Amino acid sequence: MKRRMIPMILSLLIALSACGSRGSAPADAAREGEKDSTGLVCPQSVYFMGHRDFGLAPDGCYAGYNDKGGHLESRSFLTYIDRETGEEIYLCGKPECSHVDEDGYILESCDAFIGNMMLMSVSYYDGYVYFLKYDRVSYEATMARVSQDGSVHEDLFVVGSASENGSNYDYVVDGNIVYLVYNDLDNFQLAREGTQDVSVPLEKIDLTTGERTVVYTNTGDMALIGNLKQVGDRLYFLQYSKQIKDGFDSYHLMCYNTTTGETEKVMEDEVYSYTIVGEDTIYYNIPADGVYRYQISTGERSLVRKSDDESGYLFMAYDGNYLYLDNNNSCIMDSLYGDGDCEQKVFVCTLEGELVQVIPECKGQIFTQLSDGEMICTKSFRVGMGDRSFYLRTENLQEETPEWHLAERPGE
Ligand SMILES: [Zn+2]
């Protein structure tokens, strides 16, 4: 039991480090019928660090970058991958702007420039690109947004001050309301010292009035919340909590009802990751077993795909047709506790769990990020270019070996 929990906690940390944000709201909107109008649907909870991020909009897939390799002097900026051309465009409406200097670094005068801080957790909602700005000197995080044409930049509210141990965030935007969770990784230091309980609040922030309300709190010797996804008035999230002295330990999918204000556990199983398919079905991963289908209305569950050595810890997404199962964390677990020969890949399966395609690791990439819909996006480190976005169109899944394409930046 003890041996199993260590990787579970570690992998939840990995899952939470950004899980999120960003992708959930658009992906959920897509599931509710907006996909046909937008076509390209961006990632759903497949993130490692929050600054590696995409958000879906009608014209393309928005991305946030931190140039100069993410060092303290890093400058951050926004782009989008045009759905039609696959080109990556700076989010700038200034007609005469060249966007970058002769060395290829973003100009401070460009609309796409965000600041001398880390940018993470990008999402798109109703004409705005939302994101978090993280000051690496003060450790303060601010939620901000930029209008879709790049011209209006607004700081919305200060999320909180993170600790030196780091932090992770997740949020969804719903009209003028933001639901947000902030996990301070100092919690783990405190838990190790056994000095006090920690609690993680799920907050509701009204962007019109600025009012902030805690709608749910997870408390324990260790406590985490992450992986927010909203469908109608149901806000789903994963929580981990542990009471060392009572031997109490839980790892669950929860649901906050935004109409009634009630929060309840969705099922008794320990859920590692999940994706929502339609109004009534959840697919979820239990690393030791595999992928389950759960019907919300009846509580019926069935195993649709068994796990093996390289497909235990899965991130999941759904594109309206197929399930995408990313084994990145299985490989991390394998490198830590196994023989280290796990190959990073994405299994594409039907809703019955039948394998359709295996998408290979993107060139030199560290962490895959999935999109739902027509285009699958990932960020990959490319020598001499830093982090860059790559994509793969779902229509190419029929090919024997689907290929990743670099999202070219015109004029580069
Ligand atoms: Zn520009």
Q: What does this protein look like?
A:
β14 and β15 form a beta hairpin. The N terminus is likely disordered. The termini are far apart. The longest helix is centred in the first third of the chain and has 15 residues. It is globular, with a radius of gyration of 20 Å. The chain is 12% helix and 45% strand. It is built from four helices and 28 strands. Strands 1, 2, 3, 4 and 5 form a five-stranded antiparallel β-sheet that branches. It has a single domain, classed as Methylamine Dehydrogenase, Chain H. The protein is mostly beta strands and 412 residues long. Bound molecules: zinc ion.
What are the salient characteristics of this protein?
412 residues; mainly beta; Methylamine Dehydrogenase, Chain H; 5-stranded antiparallel sheet; globular; binds zinc ion
